[in-house]
Amino acid sequence: MKTVVEAKQIKKVYGSKGNVFSALEDIDLTVMEGEFVGIMGPSGAGKTTLLNILATIDEPTSGDIVIDGINVTKMTEEQLSAFRRDKLGFLFQDYHLLDTLTVEENVILPLALAKMNVKELERRVDEVADTFGIRDILKKYPYQISGGQKQRTAASRAIISNPSLILADEPTGALDSKSATDLLECLKDLNEHDKATILMVTHDAYAASYCNRVLFIKDGNIFTELVKGERSRKAFFNKVLDVLSALGGGAHDVI
Amino acid sequence: MTLFSLAKKNIKGNFNHYFVYFVTLVFSMVIYYTFAALQHSENIQESIELSDTMRFMFGVSSVILILFVAVFVLYSNSFFTRKRKKEVGLYAILGLRKKTIAKMLFYENLMMGIIALVIGIILGTLLSKLFAMILVKLMGSTTEVDFGISAMAIIQTVIVFMVIILFTSVQGYRLIYRFKLIELFHAEKKGEPIPKVSPISAVIGVVLLVGSYWLILRPLPDDWTTEYLLRNDGVAFLALVIGTHLFFRSVTVYLLKLSQRNKSRYYRGTKLIETSQLLYRIRGNARTFTVIALLSAATISFFGATYGGYYSNEKSAKEVVPFSYSFLSKGPEFDSQVENIIEADDQHPIQAQLEIPVIQIEGTLSFQLDYDINPVKLISASTFNQAAKALNRDETVSLTGDEAAVIQPRFTEYTEATFKGESVTLQLDRGSRQLRLDHMVEGNVLPFDYPDFYVVVSHDVFAEIARQEAPLTYNVYEVENETTAQATSEKVNKLVGNDFQVSSSFYTEYKKGKEGNALTLFIYGFLGLVFLAATGSIIYFKQLTEANEATGHYEILRKIGVSKRDIRRSVKKQSLFVFGLPLTVGILHSCVILYFISNFISDLIGVNLMVPILTAIAVFIIIYTVYYAWTVNTYNRIVNR
């Protein structure tokens, strides 16, 4: 099986001399194709920093990151933009939709930026519209639809360019439990049927229980790792809760 | 921390935003100061012919300037205050009383105004000398400008601007009281709907614009009256204003929406983002765009027309006073006295010298003409031809028997068709004499004197009538380099008095015209610059506010893979649209208006307006380009951190 992400000895230090804060100490991470990996940890543990670095939005202080066989730490800003556009899909807590564009336009944005031809582009929209059930709202504007619909729109945008890796930052954070479950089911489907590789940062043990594997981070280090294996989702959920209480600090925002 | 130091910190912190406003404010102060200084400068007034006019014109234009600046300052201020709603809300939440917040804003505004005023006056005293030199140069005077610091101008500038600044400060103070705390936190509205376009209003907009252009451009009927003009162009003006507004409000929206239909172009690169952003904002900008387009149209056309007048001054002076010197003969002794003066001037040797006998006589036309013709002035064809030759003109007349030719009365637009086949009946002592008006010639040979109704008659007829009505004799001289004959002209003017409504010497008329045109040119030029600077700065604010609201957007775009360079390019395109659209409309309007003006104002008939128009347009484009570059830069700094 192919390795999608290979990160070695990633360090991230904020601030300059005298006032240094180390957000990531020394992180190694490997994600294989078709994995659905969760990253958990208490606030301030460095989850989002890690995700941003993997997303090439932020740079590590040291360390190497290879995504889909390409070393991204050596790329220029221009190359990185093209790389993000072609290889990565994003899902954020606050959706990150452009309110001047319709749902449809938001979804095709990555393809339009890549200057794909219109026929192919419309075929793809047609495909993803069903995957995330947004066909009815394609012509609407973000301010006219609900949070769940917005997040499904964002998810459609994330997968439309068939990215090698989908990065999700607290995607269920702003959703009610019904919408959250819908979204997670969709992501699971995508992972199981289309072999999409997903890396998701979350606070929420319930969301984490949808993953195949969960990494726990504490104080910028990997604390432990849980693999779902043959367990049921319910059992895995309980396991995650156990680790979280052992981890401390983050327990209060589990449920 | 005192309120003052908080206000100081706020100015420092927000200086980036205030900078362009500040520069514009200082600029308008400098111009105001210059106007005031020129108005009060005795030194300059002594050196020119039109000193009274000058004082008056600078007085009026500084009032216009100040009204405009007041509106600009008020607008900008309400803009700033609105932009800072959130900040004000935060202060309120932190427990500052409204009164205290209001006081703080008041101090802020006052402090900035005073700093601007100090800089404005310092720069004003430095630059007004330069500007005065430009004016003097334009007027063609040779005097050295001794133009020191004008206490009067400083006092006037301080008073006027302090009033404006205090007024706006109070306005800012009051604005706080009108806010409700809850509103302060919702200052930036979310989810504003995309404007719906009604094809009807787009169509009406186009129809109004086309209609007004048509009304303005269609030729005037021969028998036009002031009433007709007021009606026709009043309607045209109204249609132009409303049409322009609808153009920005609906037509552009419609066109942008249309461009979205072409999917293969629309879904390509950042086009998608730009179009939707523009579409989203254009409604809110429609009114500003309208004002800017109309203001630039007015400025360009007035400037163009004045420049045209300045440009063609020599030609029009030559029409009004054809010969270098013309005066009524008052006996041989007087005549030779004047001639001695003219001959004494070595710099301006005489090229031609002529006596022009003119008979003044009552007459009636065979048709109704709305021009007072009495007394009719008769010139003999042979004298007319001699004079025309002396003036290097090509047009001559050849008349036989009772044929006569009207010289086109100056400042009118009669054509040969007006007189063809008609006749004039002259009241002689012994009965009347009828002459056929077969021709019309352009170009009189004597200075203008109302009523300017000259009829050229054949040599024989002239001799015949002269036996009954004694002619007056005018002596005329044409000299070399007449545009510089200042000293001799002054002497001649003094000696001969007022034979005509205009001056007896070409130089005086030429110089007056040049000074008058230079003055208007100078004033329009600088007023136009202030208008331009103010409108440019308003677009700048608008774009910046937009940039601040759109930071989120651009962050998203960067995350999903748009490079900084592409964002920069996209910002450039949008700003180009925002600056270019009103300017283009303004330029189009001004071309139409100028066409109208050049046809209507007799001074400008036949003047080639190409150079002045292109100059005015070029200046506009250059200044807007500076603001454009400024905007793109700041916009980029905000969204492309």
Tell me the total number of β-strands of chain A. Answer: 10
Number of spatially distinct domains of chain B? 3
Placed side by side, the strands forming the largest sheet of chain A appear as: 6-7-8-3-9-10
CATH superfamily of chain A: P-loop containing nucleotide triphosphate hydrolases
Labels describing this entry:
A: 255 residues, alpha/beta, Rossmann fold, six-stranded mixed β-sheet, four-stranded antiparallel β-sheet, 8 helices, 10 strands, globular, disordered C terminus, B: 641 residues, nine-stranded mixed β-sheet, elongated, Putative ABC transport system ATP-binding protein (chain A), transport (chain A), ATP hydrolysis activity (chain A), ATP-binding (chain A)
How would you explain this protein's 3D organization?
- The complex is a heterodimer of chains A (255) and B (641).
- Chain A has 255 residues and is an alpha/beta fold.
- Chain A has a single domain, classed as P-loop containing nucleotide triphosphate hydrolases (Rossmann fold).
- Chain A has helices at 47-54, 77-87, 103-113, 118-131, 147-159, 177-193, 205-208, 233-247; strands at residues 3-14, 21-32, 36-40, 62-67, 70-71, 88-92, 165-169, 198-201, 213-218, 221-227.
- Chain A has a 6-stranded mixed sheet with strand order 6-7-8-3-9-10, sandwiched between helices.
- In chain A, helix 3 (103-113) packs across helix 4 (118-131).
- The longest helix of chain A has 17 residues, at 177-193.
- Chain A is globular.
- In chain A, 46% of the residues are buried.
- Mean pLDDT of chain A is 88; it is low at 250-255.
- Chain B has helices spanning 3-13, 15-40, 42-46, 51-83, 85-93, 98-139, 151-178, 181-185, 199-217, 226-261, 263-266, 271-311, 313-320, 332-344, 381-390, 416-419, 459-466, 486-496, 506-559, 564-600, 610-639; strands spanning 325-328, 350-361, 363-365, 376-380, 403-407, 422-427, 432-441, 454-457, 472-479.
- The mean pLDDT of chain B is 83.
- Chain B contains 21 helices and 9 strands.
- Chain B has a 9-stranded mixed sheet, sandwiched between helices.
- In chain B, strand 6 (422-427) and strand 7 (432-441) form a beta hairpin.
- With 641 residues, chain B is an alpha+beta fold.
- Chain A binds chain B through residues 55, 57, 77-78, 80-86, 88, 90, 92, 96-101, 105, 108-113, 115, 117-118, 121-122, 141-144, 157, and chain B through 190-194, 263-264, 267-273, 276-277, 279-280, 553, 556-566.
- Chain B: Keywords: Cell membrane, Membrane, Transmembrane, Transmembrane helix, Transport.
- Chain B: It is found in: Cell membrane.
- Chain B: Residues 60-177, 526-627 form the ABC3 transporter permease C-terminal domain.
